[in-house]
UniProtKB/TrEMBL annotation:
Residues 288-664 form the Pyruvate phosphate dikinase AMP/ATP-binding domain. InterPro entries: ATP_grasp_subdomain_1, PPDK_AMP/ATP-bd. The lineage of its organism: Bacteria, Bacillati, Bacillota, Bacilli, Bacillales. Pfam families: PPDK_N. It comes from the Bacteria. This is Pyruvate kinase. One of its GO terms (molecular function) is ATP binding. Keywords: Kinase, Pyruvate, Transferase.
């Protein structure tokens, strides 16, 4: 090796022992005190200054400085309290900025326990930082306190570093014992060495070594600092109330997060015992995430409020929580941290997301985490489970992330090996969903792309029972404490609403295909949305989502087939017999005597206390939150009076409010306007100028191939970006955001997120029908983004729809998107100076002219 690739420790005798420092070396000192570390740093720094080396001191500890202020030494102050990702990213940027052959001194790494409370994360930091230092031919000094960190942390550091050195003081004498010295060797290198002045004397005689080591304290295997904290916290249960409160607040900052409205609520309702119970069901360490916190808090509120009246109706939960630290560990230990850092930059945000997503789908988990996965699966046996995202930012005040990340059902059937494989892949799938385009754009649009978005995971037992070879709850849905989507002036918006389905709740949160969830206003549960729909059966739910235990997968099953099973409850609670339908079948020659069902939930709504109880649940939660709430739930019935509700999720409901009353223009016969209708809109009272209309022609769209329909959707996405900042009204056939091109334009929400108004036009000839999906993730996105929604049922009474009002204007598509001229037959973009849209909640009038 060239002599210029070597450097001195500042102790010439020890330089001979280890054959000098080499460019690329990370040097880790195990010490008993900071003073000992400083004794090694001082000669190293002094020698580096004499050699005109560039020296950077990375300062993050609360201890006294390792290096006194000196000229020619750059001191960089970093805040480890921001969390692992922010700190590690800042260090990476610093190393990149300082460049090659820089010499570093870091504060004692043990200090990071004060901020991260986890040995695991210190090991992760070392694993991501040291290879980069090595790559740039730097030399870096680190220290860790002896007998503090776990053996696995030390093992990880030993594996990564080039030099691992024990430093002892015995009887006022200093000894260095090299434990690892990569790419160098001598017959005496790994003996202890007595250091005095510039000399290093090898201690090779067995009697001297034995005497030296007999004075040193050797410890048994140490627990992770995270585990130690929680073990000590259990002792606080025997202490006075003040001590318990102090301990509880510390643990909440580790599991739930730092100062926030949610933390305040948790502090009010959780006891120290509650927090310790949560911790006992955590896999790994770190935060449990927003979805888990929301679910646990809502349940605790309902247990404590109104003298426990809700308790008899609540199904117990036995969830587990995969801590957010495991997400980082998974990335670090699979070698993807550098890619993660590149993806977190503005330039790499979308560019590297796909590569990182593919990696996240195929990584390996640490052995200790895999063992805990096995134990969780053994606990659940063959009960179906669901693996749900629970990120740090999710389900919080301001950002719901509704439907942005994956939830994966595990039917949990088969051999233990097969069940484990499916479970592990479900976790990978949730992790990979952090790189989904919709999630990325959501974070970007809300200025969150630079914030840490660690992914914790909520593992829940699926509520329901086995019916034949299918597993499902009787009913499921979402509930909003504030019903902003009123379609009738008599509706009490403060009574709340439900969006209800039979079977699993996936059909309640997603825009269903050729199916309609039941919309329930809780002030009058039997009221139906004013949609001028004459066919009750057509606009009801026909299929239910269930877990197929034979196929070991989530699937859809026809309701009529499911109702042939014994549902272990009165079927009449959920459905009415369709005698007219049975008569038509007999006329057609199908005389098997079976009477089909229509899912109306009429008796459930009329004869049980279910809706009254749900109304009170929403009221209590919103009162405690002092904010509207959005919940997900399911329920299982024995009979009219005996049922259990499983509260799966609770989050603040993002709302716009109704707005001030608006004076609508009067539309007389023969007046020219774009459209006018009664009802079928959401977004409160508005008077909004429209600068552009993007119009998708129904007939041309229907005649397009499926491939072209997807291409049309992508053009809408480009216009969404091009016209950002303008007030744009987007109007087209059927359902926006559907995944089925035959039902509407299959755009992602991110492709219409900058629109001011979206309109869905019913087309009877094409079978395209809007769905007022109150409570779904799609409409949560609309509300959060402040997008006004309207459905236009062309041809129905009191509806005016005049497309020529827009189509007579010049089509600006090619001017805006020069490569999109071939879509001018189906997409018309018009500049609409002076156009306004008006809506009034009280009169339910809507006008655009």
């Amino acid at each position: 090796m060239d002599r210029h690739d070597k450097a001195s420790t500042g102790i010439s005798g020890f330089d001979k022992v280890i054959d000098m420092l080499r460019l690329g070396d990370n040097v880790v000192w195990q010490v008993d005190s900071l003073e000992h570390y400083k004794k090694m740093v001082q000669p190293y720094v002094d020698q580096a200054l004499r050699d005109n080396r560039k020296i950077v001191y990375v300062r993050f500890g609360s201890h006294e400085p390792v290096i006194p202020n000196k000229e020619n030494i750059k001191i960089c102050h970093l805040d480890a309290g921001k969390g692992f990702e922010s700190f590690a990213t800042e260090v990476h940027s610093l190393i990149e900025q300082e460049g090659r052959k820089t010499f570093y001194v870091f504060d004692c790494l043990t200090e990071l326990l004060k901020h991260w409370h986890s040995d695991l994360m210190i090991g992760n930091f070392f694993k991501v930082s040291c290879p980069f230092l090595y790559e740039l031919d730097t030399i870096a000094y680190f220290a860790i306190h002896r007998n503090v960190h776990t053996y696995s942390t030390i093992a990880g550091i030993r594996e990564t570093t080039q030099l691992l050195l024990d430093l002892y003081e015995v009887n006022d004498k200093f000894y260095i014992h090299p434990l690892k010295a990569a790419d160098r060797y001598s017959p005496t290198m790994f003996f202890p060495h007595y250091i005095f002045g510039q000399e290093a004397v090898c201690i090779s005689a067995s009697s001297e070594i034995a005497q030296l080591f007999s004075t040193l304290r050797r410890s048994e295997e140490r627990l992770d600092y995270w585990t130690v904290i929680f073990n000590q916290a259990r002792e606080a249960l025997t202490h006075d109330k003040d001590e318990q409160e102090k301990t509880k607040k510390l643990l909440m900052t580790l599991l739930i997060g730092h100062e926030s409205r949610m933390l305040e609520l948790c502090n009010s309702f959780f006891s120290l015992s509650d927090i310790l119970m949560i911790a006992s069901r955590e896999i790994g360490s770190g935060f449990i995430g927003g979805k888990s916190v929301g679910m646990l808090l809502a349940r605790k509120i309902l247990e404590q409020e109104e003298e426990g009246r809700f308790i008899p109706y609540l199904e117990p939960h036995d969830s587990f929580y995969l801590g957010s630290d495991v997400f980082y560990t998974y990335i670090v230990q699979n070698g993807w941290w550098k890619l993660r850092v590149k993806q977190k930059t503005k330039e790499g945000y979308f560019r590297y997301a796909s590569e990182l997503r593919e990696n996240l789908l195929r990584g390996r988990f640490p052995d200790n985490i895999k063992e805990q996965f096995v134990q969780v699966l053994e606990y659940f046996g063959q009960s179906p489970i669901i693996v749900r995202s629970s990120s740090l930012l999710e389900d919080n005040f301001g950002n719901a992330f509704a439907g942005k990340y994956e939830s994966v059902f595990c039917a949990n059937q088969g051999t233990p090996e097969e069940r484990y494989t499916a479970f592990e892949q479900a976790i990978r799938t949730v992790y990979a969903s952090t790189m989904n385009e919709d999630a990325l754009r959501y974070r970007m649009d809300r200025g969150l792309f630079e914030k840490d978005e660690q992914m914790a995971i909520l593992i829940q037992r699926v509520s329901g029972d086995q019916y034949g070879q299918s597993f499902f709850p009787h009913i499921a849905g979402v509930g909003n404490s504030s019903n902003l989507y009123v379609w009738d002036q008599s509706i009490d918006m403060d009574a709340g609403m439900l969006r209800l389905v039979f079977g699993l709740g996936t059909r309640a949160v997603d825009r269903t295909v050729k199916d309609y969830a039941k919309i329930i206003t809780l002030d009058d549960p039997l009221r139906s949305p004013l949609m001028n729909l004459e066919d009750e059966k057509k606009f009801s739910q026909h299929d239910a989502d269930v877990l197929d235990l034979n196929g070991n997968a989530l699937t859809s099953q026809n309701v009529q087939v499911l109702f042939r099973q014994d549902l272990k409850a009165d079927k009449g609670l959920f459905a009415n017999m369709d005698h007219a339908g049975a008569a038509r079948l007999r006329e057609l020659g199908y005389a098997d005597g079976e009477v089909p069902y229509i899912l109306t939930f009429q008796r459930l709504l009329k004869d049980t206390s279910f809706t009254a109880l749900m109304k009170d649940i929403l009221r209590v939660l919103s009162q405690v939150y002092d904010y509207p709430v959005d919940i997900e739930f399911c329920a299982n019935f024995n009979d009219e009076d005996h049922y259990k509700i499983n509260l799966l999720q609770c989050r603040p409901l993002q709302t716009r409010g109704l707005g001030k009353p608006v004076q609508l223009p009067e539309i007389k016969a023969g007046d020219s306007c774009f459209f006018a209708a009664n009802g079928h809109f959401m977004g409160g009272n508005v008077r909004l100028p429209i600068h552009y209309v993007v119009f998708v022609n129904t007939q041309t769209y229907l005649e397009s191939s499926e491939q072209r329909k997807y291409s049309i959707a992508r053009q809408i996405g480009k216009l969404n970006s091009e016209l950002k900042g303008e007030n744009v009204l987007l109007i087209g056939p059927g359902r926006w955001g559907t995944t089925t091109p035959s039902l509407g334009v299959p755009v992602h929400f991110s492709e219409l997120s900058h629109m001011s108004v979206i309109c869905e036009v019913a087309s009877s000839q094409g079978g395209l029908m809007p769905e007022l999906s109150y409570g779904s993730h799609f409409f949560q996105d609309l509300v959060e983004s402040g997008i006004f929604y309207a459905a236009i049922f062309d041809g129905e009474k009191d509806v005016i729809f005049q497309p020529e009002y827009v189509l007579e204007k010049e089509n600006l598509l090619s001017a805006l998107l020069p490569k999109s001229s071939r879509f001018e037959d189906v997409i018309h973009v018009a500049r609409t100076e002076g156009m306004e849209i008006f809506s009034d909640i009280v009169s339910q009038k809507l006008v655009c002219r």
